[in-house]
């Protein structure tokens, strides 16, 4: 990340329920690095550290976070509980769990009651990457320089797709 963007403080918060989620959620952080978006990364468990979750969600608006990306697996209450305690948009990443392959995570995150939305991404790596790209797109609406970087990122992706398989 450039020094200038580091100084302005995080715009996106990446939180996850466990150290074991980092292998997936680091893919979101990698994309934010590529796009030079200031962000922070924390382990915040809805079940094991509920007070940390409360403090994080309650302070998100006053700390001027623009989007929260929350990854969790199994009984994945983290994104929904974070969304319940802040109006900052929450994007949920269902971690691919060992026992049910992430279907448990997906349903836990997607099936929110009306009134408290969580934008739910795909299970696992694709979800983590797309959560970062979606968060970037949201912020880019108000940030022309980032919009240019995101357009360039997408163009590079298109250029990298071969016309024929090798
Ligand atoms: C959830 O439980 C975490 O998000 C993680 O995906 C899952 C398993 O956590 P560990 O037992 O690996 O710490 O809270």
Automatic annotation (TrEMBL):
This is N5-carboxyaminoimidazole ribonucleotide mutase. Pathway: Purine metabolism; IMP biosynthesis via de novo pathway; 5-amino-1-(5-phospho-D-ribosyl)imidazole-4-carboxylate from 5-amino-1-(5-phospho-D-ribosyl)imidazole (N5-CAIR route): step 2/2. Signal peptide: none annotated. Substrate binds at residues 18, 21, 48. Its EC number is 5.4.99.18. It is an enzyme of class 5 (isomerase). Belongs to the AIR carboxylase family. Class I subfamily. The keyword DNA repair does not apply. PANTHER family: PHOSPHORIBOSYLAMINOIMIDAZOLE CARBOXYLASE, PHOSPHORIBOSYLAMINOIMIDAZOLE CARBOXYLASE CATALYTIC SUBUNIT. InterPro entries: PurE_ClassI, PurE_dom, PurE_prokaryotes. GO terms for molecular function: 5-(carboxyamino)imidazole ribonucleotide mutase activity; phosphoribosylaminoimidazole carboxylase activity. HAMAP family: PurE_classI (MF_01929). Keywords: Isomerase, Lyase, Purine biosynthesis. It catalyses: 5-carboxyamino-1-(5-phospho-D-ribosyl)imidazole + H(+) = 5-amino-1-(5-phospho-D-ribosyl)imidazole-4-carboxylate. Residues 10-161 form the PurE domain. Catalyzes the conversion of N5-carboxyaminoimidazole ribonucleotide (N5-CAIR) to 4-carboxy-5-aminoimidazole ribonucleotide (CAIR). It comes from the Bacteria. It comes from Parasphingorhabdus cellanae. SMART domains: AIRC.
């Amino acid at each position: 990340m450039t020094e200038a963007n580091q100084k302005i403080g995080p715009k996106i918060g990446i939180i996850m329920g466990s150290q074991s989620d980092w292998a997936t959620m680091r893919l979101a952080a990698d994309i934010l690095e590529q796009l030079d978006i200031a962000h922070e990364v924390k382990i915040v468990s809805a079940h094991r550290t509920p007070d940390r979750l409360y403090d994080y969600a309650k302070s998100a608006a006053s700390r001027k976070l623009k989007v929260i990306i929350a990854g969790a697996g199994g009984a994945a209450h983290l994104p929904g509980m974070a969304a319940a305690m802040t109006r900052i948009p929450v994007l949920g990443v269902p971690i691919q769990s060992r026992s049910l392959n992430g279907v448990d995570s997906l349903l836990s995150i997607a099936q929110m009651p009306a009134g408290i939305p969580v934008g739910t991404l795909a299970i696992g790596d694709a979800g983590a990457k797309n959560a970062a790209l979606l968060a970037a797109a949201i912020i880019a609406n108000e940030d022309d320089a980032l919009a240019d970087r995101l357009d360039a990122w997408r163009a590079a992706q298109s250029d990298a797709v071969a016309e024929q398989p090798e």
